[in-house]
User: Fold D-cysteine desulfhydrase from Desulfovibrio porci.
Amino acid sequence: MNLACFPRRGYVQEATPLEFLPAFSKALDNKVNIWIKRDDLLPGAGGGNKTRKLDFSIADALAQGADTIITCGAVQSNHCRLTLSWAVKEGLECHLVLEERVPGSYKPEASGNNFLYQLLGVSSISVVPGGSDMAAEMEKKAEMLRREGRKPYIVPGGASNPVGALGYVQCAQELMQQMFAQGLNFDHIIVPSGSAGTHAGFLLGLLGCHMDIPVTGIGVNRKKPVQEEAVYSLMRKTAEYMGVAMDIPREAVLAYDDYVGPGYSLPTDAMVEAVKLLARTESILLDPVYSGKAMSGLIDLVRKDHFKKGANLLFLHTGGSPALYAYLDSFRQAS
Ligand SMILES: *Cc1c(COP(=O)(O)O)cnc(C)c1O
Assistant:
């Protein structure tokens, strides 16, 4: 799959580190060997997976002559923080539409990503109730800005459209080269699955390289069949956008919903355990909403002997640690 024909800004200059986790593997009784791909260390204020996608999304915006970016997310959205971060670098205005998925959860004075929206100089924040039609809300904002003479470009939630998903097709290609260079092979890859662009792009990229490694998505929001359909549909659209004719096996798409807990962004005990365990064994920070819950899934699957003894697992660390500072109470309650 040739990514060179799509415009991008060059935000990702180097491969993110691939690290073995000896102490974390040992804490899980050395049943499996666990590796991590450090996409939390991608550039952009605070780091994280959206930088790979925005590399393509912002290039598309500039190609269309935009001077203003509009995007949306939850109240503690890493995607909003990184979109704003890259807009700042490019000298573009950035407007955020935040969905209050948990009623009463938006607090202008909140820490975490919300604090960073202010620090990075966001142009405006509009808060809308959970369940709002976010595309329509962003279009409303775009229309207002057009009337003021601006040229807005809308990046969808999570940059999870075919343009953004290219960033994770690229990640799969990068991983393939790293595995070869380092003489590594993986039996399973575990990825967080949210707005689906990461999971979809990554799996499509692996299949496009004929890399036959099973990918397990850990959902953070939707029910299994709904999430799997979202991933599968985005894979097909992305392949079409890239102009590649590919048979995408539906059964390659797997996204468990067992680790969501009471709902999106709501803490679970298993998430708190996962965040603490990785911090105290490997000094790597996860986040409460995505990578922490995804890691709680990996831990549970290892404990249940879901993977063959001695298997090599790779966990894709998508970032998000700035959100930890908005969840202090969840971590203080448990020691
Ligand atoms: C957005 C996000 C994800 C999920 O990626 P999607 O492409 O939305 O599925 C995972 N981890 C973190 C930290 C994120 O911010």
In short: The chain has two domains: 14-48+161-334, 51-159. The beta strands are 18-20, 33-38, 68-74, 93-100, 124-129, 152-154, 188-193, 215-219, 255-256, 312-317. The pocket of pyridoxal-5'-phosphate is lined by residues 48-49, 78-79, 158, 160, 192-199, 287, 290-291, 318-320 (CB under 6 Å). Residues 162-182 form the longest helix (21 residues).
